[in-house]
Write a structure and sequence with these properties.
single chain, about 200 residues, alpha+beta, D-amino Acid Aminotransferase, Chain A, domain 1, 2 domains, six-stranded antiparallel sheet, four-stranded antiparallel sheet, about 25% helix, globular
Length: about 200
């Protein structure tokens, strides 16, 4: 499953996800908030694709329009309201094991800088921690893990075949134009792929 399919699968899974929409070139984005623009290709390499994160509506629309022409018929451009990540990580769902990796703030701290505050492994009901056991509260762990049965049910065939699913998540807040947090914190999943 590539990034594009992952976006569609997330929508169908009944998980808390980003409210993404496809950009067609006729949209006018709300100027009172910041936006994220990403791309997804139908086939081929879908890693490190062009994106803009946390930009004004004007910059988002300009970038999205150019990206739309660059991709032509090879993919889609999506957009969604920007959010601030307080804690982020990955959730790997295997047939019988679940692994949560978490990092402070943005996921890029884990992916690009290899920072990691904690890894939590749940195997047959036994939970083990590697790193800061207090980084995620019991409630935060529970909110992430309560989504695992839905994921296992939807992808049981891939899991039986030995694949696992990797989801990206954040505990996030909405942002004002100055990138200051507003509103309550919420859990959001924003990428899904089969590995």
């Amino acid at each position: 499953m590539n990034k594009l399919m992952g976006f569609f699968e997330l929508n169908d899974l009944d998980l808390p996800t980003i409210p993404w929409k496809e950009y067609t070139g006729s949209e006018f984005l709300d100027k009172s908030i910041l936006w994220t623009v990403r791309s997804a290709v139908y086939k081929g390499n879908d890693l490190n694709l062009p994106r803009k994160i946390g930009v004004s509506a004007d910059e988002a629309m300009t970038f999205a329009t150019k990206l739309l022409h660059t991709l032509a018929q090879n993919g889609i451009v999506i957009y969604y309201p920007y959010f601030l990540a307080n804690k982020s990580g990955t959730l790997e769902v295997r047939n019988k094991k679940t692994i949560i990796e978490a990092v402070n703030a943005d996921l890029w701290n884990l992916v690009s800088l290899s920072d990691r505050d904690v890894t939590i492994e749940i195997d047959d009901g036994v939970t083990s921690f590697h790193g800061d056991e207090t980084f995620l509260s019991e409630s935060e762990i529970t909110k992430i893990v309560e989504n695992v049965p839905k994921i296992r049910q939807s992808f049981r065939n891939q899991l039986i075949e030995g694949h696992s699913l990797l989801l990206e998540w954040s505990y996030a807040q909405r942002s004002n134009l100055q990138k200051m947090p507003i509103g309550n914190e919420y859990l959001v999943f924003y990428e899904l792929r089969t590995i």
